[in-house]
Amino acid sequence: MGNDTEKRNIVEPSILSGFMELLPKEQMLFNSMVDTIRATYESFGFIPVDTPVIEKAEVLLAKSGGDTAKQVYRFNKGEHDLALRFDLTVPLARYVAQHYGELTFPFRRYHISKVYRGEKPQKGRFREFYQCDIDIIGNGSLSIINDAEIVSVIYNTFKALGFGDFTIMINNRKLLSGFFESLGIDDATEVLRIVDKIDKAGEDYVKAELLKNGASEEATESILKLVKLFGEPLDIVNELKNWGIDNEKFIAGLEELEAVCKSIKALGVPSECFKLNLKIARGLDYYTGTVYETFLNDYPELGSVCSGGRYDELAQNYTKQSLPGVGISIGLSRLFYQLNEAGIISNNGKATPTNILIVPMDDTVEYALKTASQFRSRGIATEVYLNGGKMGKKLNYANKLGIPYVAVVGESEMQNGTVMLKDMESGEQKEVKVDDVVI
Amino acid sequence: MGNDTEKRNIVEPSILSGFMELLPKEQMLFNSMVDTIRATYESFGFIPVDTPVIEKAEVLLAKSGGDTAKQVYRFNKGEHDLALRFDLTVPLARYVAQHYGELTFPFRRYHISKVYRGEKPQKGRFREFYQCDIDIIGNGSLSIINDAEIVSVIYNTFKALGFGDFTIMINNRKLLSGFFESLGIDDATEVLRIVDKIDKAGEDYVKAELLKNGASEEATESILKLVKLFGEPLDIVNELKNWGIDNEKFIAGLEELEAVCKSIKALGVPSECFKLNLKIARGLDYYTGTVYETFLNDYPELGSVCSGGRYDELAQNYTKQSLPGVGISIGLSRLFYQLNEAGIISNNGKATPTNILIVPMDDTVEYALKTASQFRSRGIATEVYLNGGKMGKKLNYANKLGIPYVAVVGESEMQNGTVMLKDMESGEQKEVKVDDVVI
B13 with A319: CB under 8 angstroms? Predict the structure, then answer.
């Protein structure tokens, strides 16, 4: 082996564009966000699921067409037609349909993992990215109160993440469709598509488009009046009740909204974090009731950082069982990238889990190793610096990694059963008995 | 959308053979093992790294040939030639070479993630599986004491996993090569290959093969004498010193082994868990010093459950920098499968993180939601049962998921600010103030 070292070709080490790879400091920060999200999801009793990244293409793409299909990483291996998952929802649908008889419903699952989309790489958009999903799947039916619980999960997650103030906005697509129906409009989807542009393109544009699409002047005014409603959920619900609209869907949607808003209050979500926003529709066709978006108040330009909604049929491509559900997703890689670029997040400078670096002087390596084992057994992440060199170089290692404490041990400390503990931030140091070191 | 439900093709939901997918109870158990391994790795100050699953094929396959290359999932997307990682070591080499200037050495990294090998599926072998790796990479050189620390990591990891007694075996390839050289044997690799079969094929087979390979009768006897050494590390080291073998490599290997064994003792690894085994060679060409294998004492048939070793050059395909290292890997998916099949592991029956299921009676849903939020804020994973139905069905939900406590709330509990807390194992129940519930 050794002989061909000189002949060996050096291949330039690099990764594909559109793939995120972090250095230790950022990775520590990213992982702490994953831990926070996971802990919050678990506190609500969501169950972890882990599905294969590679699935049968015919199964994974049972429904998808258009853009999604084009973006999918699809390839053959032997006689198999394979594809990498492009979201965590389709694998959930497949999982629930496949293991239907072995699951307990309502099935509350979370899944935090990578998904793959071969889209054109742009700043802040990735081809491999983490999604953090929760869904609650009912067997035949699912109480509307679950839709409220989802808001409480979002609230507790973003509170725990600590990015500052945020607003969770909800709406109900049944209410919207019913409202449009009551105005004599058949194609609710098209109207939603137009209305969705109000923030970007402005009210006049939306008005013109609606008229162009065949809505009457009066209907257009009504639609604009509706979608501009924003604010205290129960106030708006009451206002809408007074509009006296006689459409079944509208009334059903309004009742759902009222139940959801009342329960959100009971769950202790403060009213400043939670608003009704009648123009939120969400792009995905399959949402059929409640829809969610979440915005960071100081950074509205990030767009919605957590979205989702209620759907009637999770798994109709895989089973005849009716499996209604409600869920949300956080696109963590993109969110992390944006927050990090904007300087909104940073960790405490730590590029390692280590809390104490033990630096042995003279002939005290064995004492250092013993002491490290004692610290570790007490839950203190500990590392022994085993390289030679001057003290400055050793302290520099600790500084570069952001290790908060250095414990120097020499002959005298070994005799005394102590370490010379240096606080790297304050620069203070004092001799402490090994047994008394607490961090 | 709704209209084409009847026309819709139902695709049979299934995954590819050779891919592991777990039901909730097993997934909870698997995740708890990952958590244990991660916590132990971090207690030693190993830094998390997360690399892309998809890499450039030319980079990932810079070295590999033969079987590995055949097993790799390799495909094109647009103009790109892509491959899925088949281990975590090659991505580490690429990562360290690529980010060399931004890393602090010695670089201690851990990586727990999935890798992909399209090998023929067999019982207990997977095409997608978790590896749990740690490596310590030096810049130019790396103290031999790191090789001892690795044993301490293995010891603490398997102790924390709690599978019962285990034995970590170490050896040194430099010592082996030097010994063979001293007998006039050039092709140490071939001898190692033969010797490696002693447990399976027996002593006579090994003897015959060595003779066939050109070793003298005397050399063959010496080799067998060496590889049968097994037991107390420092005793064997002393015995080998007395053999008076005058070969530089042998002496260097023996010195390394002595230093490693002494430090392992200092690190508090009990002697019953740690043995020297002179016939361990490990298949991989690149190991150049210490090698490790780990066996569960009661289940030797599982083979080594954690292996690794010391290598001189981590990243010679990507950089001219000399980056020696030492590391180990746990093949967790395979290990989990084997332990689970053999009934060696099982969780506490929990198929959910939930510790309390609140069951609202009468009109107490809001009180139930409020109570749930209080429990969660105190760190108790809590779920509210929101489906209708009889009490038996609700308790059955808790039983099926292994939820340890059910808190029933009715009008009276709501008035009293209490819950009726039922211990699902003992069947006992008592009314407890919401503030006094501790789990």
Answer: yes
